[in-house]
Amino acid sequence: MADYARVDLDAENQVTFELNGRQVSAPAGTMLVDACYAHGVEVPIFCYEPRIGPPVGACRMCLVEVEGMRGLQTACSTPVRPDMVVRTDSPAAKDGQEGVLEILLMNHPLDCPVCDKGGECPLQDRSFKFGGGKSRFFEGKRHFPKPLELSSRIALDQERCISCFRCVRFSQEVAQDGQLTMQERGVQSQITTFSGDAYEDRFTGNIIDVCPVGALTSIPYRFVARPWDITNTPSVCGLCPVGCNTELTLRDGDVKRVTGRPDPNYEVEEGWLCDVGRWGFDGDGGITRLTRAIVRDANGERHTDLTDAVAAATVALRGASKPVGVLLGATATVEEAAIALELAGGALAGARVARLGIPAAPLAALRATPRAQLDEIERADLVAVVGGDPGLAQPITELRMRKAVLRNGARLVTIGSRPGTLADVATHVHAAPGALTAAVAELAAQIGATGRPVVLWDEAELAAEPAAAEALAEAVSANGATRQIELGADVNGAGLRALGIPATGLLEALEAGELGALLTVRADPRSAPGRVAWEAALEGDVPVVALATHADRTTDAATVVIPVQSLLEQEGTLVSMTGRAQRVRRGAEGPAGAAPGWEVLIALGHHLGAPPAYRTASAALAAAGGRYAGIEGLTYDAMGVGGVELPRPAADHLAADAGPARAAGSDGLALVATRDVYGGREASRAPALAAFHAPAAATVSPATAAALDVTDADTVTLTSPYGAASLPVRIVDGLSDDAVFVTLGTADAAAEALMPPDRGPVRVGVSVEARR
Amino acid sequence: MTADQIREYLEPRRHEFADPRSLVLPALKFAQTGRGYLTREDMEAVAEATGYSASYVESVATFYDRVYTEPVGTRVVSVCVSMSCQLRGADQVWEALCDKEGVDHHHGGTSADGRITVQEAQCLGYCDRAACIQVDAEETQGPHTPDSARALVDELRAAPDPDEYWR
Amino acid sequence: MPLLNSVYRQREAGKPLVTLDDYRAAGGYQALPKVLAEMDPDDLQYEFMRSGLRGRGGAGFPMGKKASFLPKDSQRPKYVVCNADESEPGTFKDREIMEFNPFQLLEGITLAGYAIGAVRGYIYIRGEYEHQARVLDRAVAEARAAGLLGTGLFKSTFDFDITVYRGAGAYICGEETALLESLEGKRGQPRLKPPFPAVAGLYHSPTLINNVETLAALPPIVEKGADWYAGLGTEKSPGTKIFCVSGHVMRPGNYEIVLGETTLRELIFVHAGGLRPGRRVKAVWVGGSSVPPLGEQHLDTPLDYEALAAAGTMLGSGGCIVMDDSGSVVRTTLRLVTFYRHESCGKCSPCREGTSWMEKLLQRIVDGQAGPDDLEMLKALFGRISGRTLCPLAEGAVGPVRTALELFPDDWADALENGVPVPEPMLPVSS
Q1: A158, A249, A355, C294 - which has most CB atoms within 10 Å?
Q2: Measured between beta carbons, which residues in chain A are less than 8 angstroms from residue B43?
């Protein structure tokens, strides 16, 4: 349970004490509630939530008797002491607990039958387990207007609130967004925002998970299901490379809700989710979802069933007189990639397999240095972020860094072209695009001077500056205590690399006319960086077979489109940016006309006459685990519920996977392509995330805007050697001058049009297209 | 009140506190001197001048009885109703003023002309002059009877507006 | 027994001592130079300890002992905080010190600061005392101009300054950890203890918190010696204490007495002028509203910590509220509970919800809408609230009700029968 802190009963410094007549032990400093829970004794709590911060002792629910101490003690704030004698079930302790429950229920409306929390409500459960069973309160209850929309996603019922302070502490101390506070005093206390404004921020949904009553509920989930209607499945979020562990709530074959795991993965998300991870599932449906296969031929376009489509795909691929290209997208699972590789070795012998992503070679040395999981950030005394803006691109890392600063006093340094979302807690060291190397040299000096540094580095920005990546690799290795965490660009980039799949080679072969057909798996090259080159290379008569969940530019033009299940609907393995292999589970049933991607690929193998030896995802993974060193021995059993960390790649891994050397040049402005899961395609498909939807823009510093003579909402045309795009101007303080910031992954794929496929350094010319 | 005005007020006090958060309450009290209560804009100005979120500023403001986040009258008349004053006629003084100003007997309120707010106060520390009345936070007087309290309000209504509101 | 104006030097002087010259002329600022020239901080702390001075805010904890709890080896700056959030109903003694004898408080804070090696003192004064805060502001400015605050006091190496910090209307800020929260710019909600303020108080630094009267008692202790002070009163309750007498008495006001020498009867009938003709004492809340009331049978109790405790109440703040037999304790009890409901900070559920529950029950009793079951419910609630919270506010709300039920059963029986009419108030003595 997330409610109680983990207790290591095998740690040294154990303290032995008596609990309800038993001799038990726990490490010194453990709070009594946690020690009790570790020994199977539940002491009820409401305000205590060790993930949020130290105990506050407000709700008084956890009263227990400690011999020699006057009155009852709150077990949440009493550390274990040697030989203390604790009773949680004595008449006095029970009276204490019963009394607090009676008091808490006094003003609490007993509207459980119409409350979304009913059936999974800690207040309800603990009232049954620890309460007196009846109320003696016959006075009028306190009334507040209800329910209020705290935001477009969260409903607030103040009458149900028991003032446990968890949500406001989350807002103040974990997300540190400053928005949610307790106002008024005494029995009139209520949680609210400034003047009742909407609580709009990036991690707000976590307050629903921590609320121990029905005061905070999810608006999209409101009245959707009762606890007995649903089943819950542990899974992993597939919307960014962090790999947050999630729980899917299922009803009628559909995902109705995504929440943090009740048993968090402390090495990854610690039970928190960003709002996109929580509500983005909503975007899996919608009008762009592919529900039927499409075959396009001389007779035009027809919708068809899966069997027919696989047959058509077989014809298209087998008919090619030249080798086939297989292109894997960032969300292709390890199983899908492994089957594709197997096809390339047999049924499609000679096929060239590649991934959409960043070439691995420039980063190989850095990836080979000692790596950490996210919990290591908490133990660091210096946390450095080199490049990127993790709060937007790998959101949950932000909470860990805030925790390191606020609770553990770590020093946080961000280095790069923009201060980003951590600006209020970090020292920002400005480094213009292309100038990371010098900044890394300065950082190397600081690393040498501290005890436990953790360096988080942005895959895309360091790949664009190989010298900086090399310098950083040296800095990390120089001090034996330093650990590095990759801020990855692609959801399963690490998984695809672990199988040895390069990012380069395929487009070049296509351009050279060496390929006869293209099979894409969850890949949309026509919306990817270098899309102009991809489009050009796909002109002509190269047939394309696309396995995809949603209609996109590639499926719009493909010869055969085979709908596949999303990562909420099928089994699969993703490898996180920290090298954790974790399972996504089948949650929703998905459209009837879609099949798991791995199953479609196996079927293709059968049709092509070289069937793989397995028929399930788990067997496909086990087979791959026996074949590829990067995932050696990996099975579903080995991953369990919390995943398993894969070995770090060697320094010469994928050494040939490099784009062409590019001189950045000095004409025009540097282009910085940023990632923002809140502004990405997946978020834009989810109605629940409407508050985040914003048009793509060309963002510049005020000085740059002045130099260009543009203002907010002017529209400019950006031109690079790789393409052009028109975008409205946005002006933001603190950015590098002489640079234009564009967001990757937006629906219009404007940024991608300006870039080469390997995403290397780009400079753009700017011309004003329209004045406001 | 603007953020700059608040900053100017806080500046000489800043060195007295190891944590700038201590300036939030002085800032709120100062911001209130302008209008006698705080508007949304006032709280935003306090937030800007102190560096804490507006929601935080409001949460502090609403904890304290003498920080007003809703409009109140030109003068705030606090009638002490705690025990010492209760024993010496505070309830009668309270009723008299509520009647005179036409405000709710349970919660008090502001007269229709906006001049006078009548509110209950907890012990004001003038029990030797019970029943006592405080005008804003500056002057506490007593003992009062219903008649003397009514006369006081008449005087206040006729008096010029204060330059600053310390409440 | 006669009054002894030691803290109330202004009364001894016969005029307010609001200028530095007047305070000096009355013997002020003799202690500080003497201490800075002759004593080291530990000696001064020992002097405080020997005087036996107990905290005058309500808890009565020995002041010197409290000072000794501050860690000597801490690298953090240390602070003295003067609790001037005088808000306990029936208490108005500190107001008079600050208004008419402010320099004695400043001198006392400075002495305490020297004893613990503090860098700064804060006077946290309730917002409603704006007038007194301005007196203090002026006194601080004058002391600073005269070199009595600032760097190198009296050519010593001791640097010390004082900040007057205004509250904004919240009784709970009289609780020392809530006060610290408020002084740190937060909502004034009590903290979990430990750590205690002596170890981690203001800004997590070692902090000595004392009431105005306690700190103002220090200059005379230094001037005349700890032996002198310890020789006043009883062994466990040495020194003088100011009692604020209010309610149904002819001469309400502050009276500084020697502890243990004066009985409650003398305080009420000799010093405070007695009651209206024909009236008898019904109930006395002798140490502020948070203490259990006493009845007529307790009038001969000597006023000191131990004797009052033996009588079933506490000396508390010395806010002595006297009620004669003209009314019912049921109505005053409701008023008290309304006060605590209003002032509950809302942090601990038993207090936040429980005071509201008690108020609703009592309101029905006063309105004549209750039966014997409700009285039993009220009693059952005490155990639900008392002893289950972070701070003593809830205890203050429960204690007086519990005792009122025990001591005055007739009033409650009457209330259940007929409700409680609004009594005729005692009219003002004179303006």
Answers
A1: A355
A2: 194-195
